[in-house]
From TrEMBL:
Keywords: Cell membrane, Glycosyltransferase, Membrane, Transferase, Transmembrane, Transmembrane helix
Any one GO MF annotation of this record: pentosyltransferase activity
Membrane topology: Multi-pass membrane protein
Compartments where located: Cell membrane
GO biological process, one term: response to iron(III) ion
Protein name as catalogued: Glycosyltransferase family 39 protein
Glycosyltransferase RgtA/B/C/D-like domain mapped to chain residues: 190-307
Pfam families with a match to the protein in the record: PMT_2
Organism: Sulfuriroseicoccus oceanibius
One of the record's GO cellular component terms: plasma membrane
Length: 638
């Protein structure tokens, strides 16, 4: 069967699928957004699904029809091209694989215990909304109930654009084996390690993909060096165990790039389709990676049109690239259409979101290349680490480790730029997306957080490894060249490890936000919210409230309700129950909760149990305890 026939069948199947959805799927007129609004109802996820998937099917069907009509041009016959993938001796392949396996094993062994660290705010919100569900008190009956996150929530709830959909689906599957019995006092209704397992596996897989990508491009020695460098990057280590989709973004970015390289090397349809599938998974996980997807397709087109290698097959190969893009676009538009109105509603709300400024720009660039802030983000926090602080402590010591890393980085850029093959595509694919994101955020003052550019950080260890290995090029493949390459690589690995060691140690040994640590200070015996003894302690949260670990706390997050703390204090003194206040981001909270702080600041009323530093400014938590909490004797009978 010819490629043209296969593509026509695929396009026809897609067209039939989208057409069937338009005919037999939920009717957007009766069950969509407009119908809910006309009836005066709250627009729910199912309404977004009905309207969004119908619109997505309409657009997807149009794209499938276009692909079918254009198939004679897209599937031109092409002369076979020689596979330009470098061949390696079996011994070198085995050595590279052995280094990769060892690096992955060490990384897993030194980080698996972090799977059970506290969830921080963004992880917790995603868990409650899209993966597991939440415990809530019914407004009319005051009965406590558990609302499970459905698969519709997992795939289509985007009221908060914190849903990294493909990750959420994987985490929901991973978490499905977790069960809690009401009789188990120390059980939790969720499991941190189960939630984080998909990220952990994707992160470990990314180390292997770094090696595979460089080996496929002909940089076998650099691949051996790049894998341990990747495992040393503090920012990579942070997102290795974060219960969000960023590790999967790194994984699919590398996978899509690897498949694109293979498609350009041999031109076979299977690699173009694999590239399309990996890009689909990338965007379904994290739509912000559209910058990366566009750069991948654009860079592929540049290689096809300007490389002499494709002189005779240029139009045919371009047709395969466009075909891959059309199929991917049809299905990603279909599955993401229900999320777009929700995203628009979110952006239309007046939210206090972080925007780019010179300090944040410097920190973001520093985090990208070293995983460490440029300036201290909190001089009073013992976990705050910054490169500028290292410079102030000892400029000479800083330069000893920074100069080799910087030289290797620059040498890696030069090496790729001068490479005669299309290995240079790593530069635009991995550097243009973060640069474009920073530029847009600066010009338009859109919301920006440094982790928005996390997906392409593997370029840093790859460039450093390429540069370190570059020192041996003048010696060719002789034994001396290998020794020089190993020596320079070990020097650079040591330098990068030393430069980033402080942040790496902090990341490995401390949670982003110590929510569970705070929770265990006042609920060490009974942690299960379904257990009848959970009410033996009164807890209050009013800012950055810890309602994931302690869903039965009293939420006073509305400043208009902060007077209720007096009633809760009276209840504690009447019943003799301990009362604790657990909150975060104190400086911001003081601007809005002056009545609560007038009590917390009184040493005769409250005492500090602990101040638990976090790894970001807003994530340091305090736990306060009411004094005294002795049970009052009942009044004597008359």
């Amino acid at each position: 069967m010819s490629a043209l026939t296969k593509f026509r069948i695929a396009s026809l199947v897609a067209l039939i699928f989208f057409g069937a959805w338009l005919i037999f799927g939920p009717d957007p007129v009766e069950a969509g957004i407009a119908a809910a609004e006309a009836a005066g109802k709250k627009v729910k996820v199912e309404h977004y699904i009905a309207s969004g998937l119908w619109q997505g099917a309409l657009i997807g069907g149009g794209i499938a029809l276009l692909a079918l009509v254009a198939s004679p041009w897209l599937c031109r016959p092409a002369q076979p091209i020689n596979d330009s993938k470098p061949s390696l001796p079996r011994s070198q392949k085995r050595f590279t694989i052995a280094v990769g396996v060892l690096t992955i094993a060490i990384t897993a062994a030194t980080n698996y215990q972090r799977l059970s660290q506290s969830l921080w705010d963004d992880e917790a919100k995603a868990m409650r909304m899209f993966i597991v569900g939440k415990l809530y008190q019914h407004s009319k009956t005051n009965e406590w109930k558990f609302k499970e996150a459905t698969w519709s929530d997992t795939f289509f709830n985007y009221r908060l654009p914190n849903n990294h959909i493909l990750f959420s689906a994987a985490a929901k599957l991973s978490h499905s084996g977790h069960n809690v019995k009401p009789t188990e006092p120390d059980a939790m209704y969720f499991s941190e390690w189960r939630l984080r397992l998909p990220s952990f596996l994707a992160g470990l897989g990314s180390i292997a993909l770094v090696g595979a990508l460089l080996t496929t491009l002909g940089f076998q020695r650099a691949a051996v060096f790049a894998m341990p460098l990747t495992a040393l990057h503090p920012w990579f280590l942070r997102y290795l165990v974060e219960a969000r989709g960023y590790a999967m973004v790194i994984f699919f970015t590398l996978l899509a790039t690897l498949f694109l390289v293979r498609a350009l090397q041999c031109g076979r349809w299977r690699w173009w389709l694999a590239f399309s599938a990996a890009t689909f998974c990338l965007l379904w996980t994290y739509p912000v990676a559209l910058y990366t997807a566009v750069t991948l397709f654009g860079t592929g087109a540049l290689v096809l049109w300007f490389s002499p290698r494709f002189r005779g097959t240029r139009l045919a190969m371009t047709g395969r690239l466009v075909s891959a893009g059309l199929l991917m676009s049809a299905f990603i538009i279909f599955v993401m259409s229900p999320t777009l109105p929700q995203l628009q509603n979110y952006l239309a709300e007046d939210r206090d979101l972080q925007t780019l400024n010179p300090r944040l720009t410097a920190d973001s660039i520093s985090l990208f290349f070293t995983g460490t802030h440029w300036r201290l983000w909190d001089s009073g926090n013992p976990l705050s680490v910054a490169l500028k602080d290292d410079i102030n402590d000892s400029l000479a010591a800083f330069l000893v480790v920074a100069i080799p890393v910087a030289l290797a980085l620059l040498a890696g850029i030069v090496r790729l730029a001068l490479k005669r093959t299309h290995a240079w595509l790593l530069l635009p694919v991995f550097l243009i997306p973060p640069a474009a994101f920073l530029a847009q955020a600066a010009v338009q003052q859109t919301a920006f957080y440094p982790w928005y550019i996390i997906g392409t950080i593997p370029i840093v260890p790859m460039l450093i490894a390429l540069g370190a290995d570059y020192a041996a090029r003048p010696l060719g493949n002789r034994r001396a060249g290998g020794l020089v390459a190993i020596g320079s690589a070990l020097l650079v690995i040591w330098a990068f490890s030393s430069l980033t060691s402080a942040q790496r140690n902090v990341t490995r040994n401390h949670p982003i936000e110590p929510t569970r640590d705070a929770f265990e200070l006042y609920r060490s015996e009974v942690t299960n919210p379904f257990h009848p003894d959970i009410d033996q302690v009164i807890t209050i949260g009013f800012h950055q409230e810890n309602n994931t670990y302690d869903p039965k706390l009293h939420r006073l997050d509305d400043p208009q309700q902060q007077h209720r703390i007096h009633d809760l204090i009276a209840e504690a003194r009447e019943t003799g129950k301990p009362l604790y206040v657990d909150f975060g981001q104190e400086a911001y909270a003081r601007l809005h909760f002056d009545e609560i702080f007038s009590l917390l600041d009184d040493p005769q009323t409250f005492e500090l149990v602990a101040e638990l530093p976090g790894l970001e400014l807003q994530n340091t938590r305090k736990v306060m305890r009411l004094l005294p909490t002795q049970r009052h004797a009942p009044p004597a009978a008359p």
